[in-house]
Structure formats: C-alpha cells, structure tokens
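Contributing new complexes? Match this layout with adenosine-5'-diphosphate.
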Amino acid sequence: MTTPISKNDVIALIEEHDIRTVQIGYADIQGVMRGKYIPARFFVESIDKGVAFCVVALGWDIQCMIVNGLDFSSWANGFPDMLAKPDLSTFHILPWREKTAFVICNLVTEHGDPFVYSPRYILEQVVEQAKASGFTPFMASELEFYLLREDARTPLYGGVQCYNVYKGGEAEFFLGELRESMAKMGIYIEASNTEYGPAQFEVNIRYSDAVDCADKAMVFKNGTKELARNHGLYATFMSKPWYVESGNGYHCHQSLWDLEGKKNLFEGSGHEMNDVMKNYLGGLLKYARDLQALAAWSINAYKRVAEYSYAPTRINWGEDNRTTGARAIMGGTASRLEYRVGAAEANPYLYLAANLAAGLEGINSKLSPPEKIVGDGYAEGTGELLCTSLDQAVSFFEKSKLPKNYFGEKFVDAYVTICKHELDEARKFVSEWERERYLEFT
Ligand code: ADP
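Output block (do not edit by hand):
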C-alpha cells in the first residue's frame, strides 16, 4: 500500500476513476476503523489542512460509551478537535464500493503536533527506534475470523471442517472476492483456508514493513466486514465468540532486516538461531505478560487462552512448534518468529508495536530465551502461564517500565484507563449464564 504519491497523482487518480467519495479512516485505541465519507472535491481540499474530528473518537469504547478519566478527551476539556491528515501513500481505489477511494490518516493536534494517543503514531515511534539501531522490521499478519449469517449470530455453516477443500469451495463466493479485492489494494493474501471452527477462516497476508503491515491488517479487517455486509453476511474478529469453538487468533510473523531491507538479520546457519534472533525472542517472551493487554484488550479475549486449543497458554517457544507462545522458523531468508499470543480483536498498530518493542528491548539487553520446548508446550513445567484475564494483564502492563519507555506515559495512562473502563463495564453486567446458574436455586 505504501507507494509514495503526490497530491497531483491523487487528483489524477480521482479523475481517471471518476471517484465521487473518499473514505478516510484511522484506528481508534481498541482497533476500530473510525473516519468519514467525504465527497472527492472536499477531500482534495482537506489533503493539506486535514479533517477535523472530535477527540472523543479515541476517548470512547467499542460501543461509543465515553471513557471517564482521560486527560485528552473529557467533559472538563470540552472535547476539542484533532485533525486527521491523509497519508497519500495509502490512497487506494476501493474495489467493493463504486466510485469510492480509501485513505489512512495520521492524527495530529489542532496545533499540528503528533497526537500521542494515536495507535499509528505509537507504532511509528517504535519503528523509528528500530531504524536508529540499524533494523528494518518486517512483519506479517495471520488473522482468523468467522463468517456469520444475516442474524449476526449463527456461523454460515455448521461443523468443523479445517482445511476441507470442498467446504472452502462453498465459501469461495466470498473468500475469492476478498482475496482479489485485497490484491487490488496491494494487500496480498498468500493463502486462505477453512479453520478449526464452523465457518471460521484464516488468511496469511504477505509480510511487509511494520507500519505497512499494520495498515494492511486494519484495512483487511474493516474490508472483510464491509464485503461480508455486501453479501448479506457478517464477519467477526471477536476473539472467542463461543465457549466450545476455536477462538480467533492474530499471529504475528516478524523478522529484522538491514536498513536497506535486503538482508534478513535473523538468518542463522541451519537450525541455529543467531544472536539477533535469540535476543529478540528473549525480549518477546520476557515481556509477554507485560504487553499482553496490547495483544488482547477485551475480557472476552482471555477466554481464548485455553489448553490444547492451539492458542498458547505458556510463555515458551519451540522450533516449528504450534503449542508454544512463540514459534521459531529457521530457514534462510524466511527465518522469522511467529508470536501466537495475539487475539484477532487486537489493534494491529498496538500489537505490532508491543511485539517490536519487546524484541528491541531483548536485543538492547542481550536477553536469552528460555530452553526450547520440544513437543507439548501446554504441559506442566514448560514455562510460566500467560495472563488469563484482562484484569491480570492490565496490572502487569501498568507496573512495567517498558510500555512507558517505548510508548510514552500519556499513552500508557490512557490505555490503562480504557482497559479499566472495559473491566468495570463487564463487572457490572448480569449475564444469562448467571441467571441460568443462580436464579432458580438461590
Ligand atoms: P502458518 O502459521 O499459517 O503455517 P506460515 O508459517 O506458512 O503460516 O507463515 C506464513 C507467513 O509468514 C506469511 O504471512 C508470510 O508472509 C510470513 N513471512 C514469511 N517470511 C517472513 C519474514 N522473513 N518475516 C516476516 N514474515 C514472514
């Protein structure tokens, strides 16, 4: 997606494709694409000056309920504006909507300073640190989602048919269009397949530099939902929609390359990890719990952390091992680490920023990973347990120095406040499960 283009190029594209509307978007803190639909002529005017948004767009939860206790967005500060400035390198014609284009925006304050709560800005800052140390991070998103019928509750088909080609064929009317549409936007899906839940699918998006990778994941998630609606369906990246079925994960493949992006610096000899990869893995695992709140922000996501579910439960790693928190793939230029802790709901910018910050810290402090796990990574004694609740994860996040050092105190305070709001909302709610369990017998 990131081919630098000028304002004149964008105007030419708008004319050539008879674009009437430009969707502008950015990720809020919980990873929802927020934005506006703008008539093309007004979009052109806004390229330099930006589009005003009330700061509350980053100061509410997924249901647009205002989060109290945020400095930047409150009744006390009167909810001022922030500006969304289009990053023209992300401008694309939208394949699934007529005469419509799409662009990702950077958020700045009314005075033009970076908006330090913007997830894209947070990732950009960590990438800057990587570059200053001589690294170009390459990352890839592996995402799972369910397709639901018009009722937004029932999977498109029943039964688990993982990798079943016939069942995949039944969903090709959607997946085929999804892969094609994404490719037109430069988002290359290397493969899609039916997954381990009813009408659950997985896609592997081709790796690219970190910010581009997060942009692509954002556009992919939002686009999958839009395209599903065009077919009368719903797509959900909810982390654990059903107790008995597989959760939706977000695995992040990652490697560090030289500044020119020509040489994979994780490339060791044979099955030996080199020091860069080893130290990066050491950081990734050491800070797994400290940063888990960025890999999973809802109370629901922690229900995905279940033994023998392919979602990891322990802080461990193995070579090509899908039972561990991290999977190391040692193989020439394809050498990489697959971090498996993330939930599909995760904000791609913040999840990638967390992975990268932990890895860089590992390199800076020359951290060694624990012993490699051969075989069952769920077994007793194979590593400390990951957090199993948002409550626990937030408390690790709040106490850790690493998030403050890499993401800034203001962002960390805001993120903690938003997570605590999420916990509070969940705590107050009385569920059907509670009524089933207690109403008659107490
Ligand atoms: P799965 O876990 O589904 O079996 P794979 O192990 O085949 O997936 O990994 C494929 C993913 O790894 C793709 O998204 C691909 O683009 C990505 N990938 C390949 N090489 C690298 C690399 N050097 N750095 C980061 N990601 C990479």
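Reviewers usually confirm one structural detail per submission. For this one: The chain has a mean pLDDT of 97.
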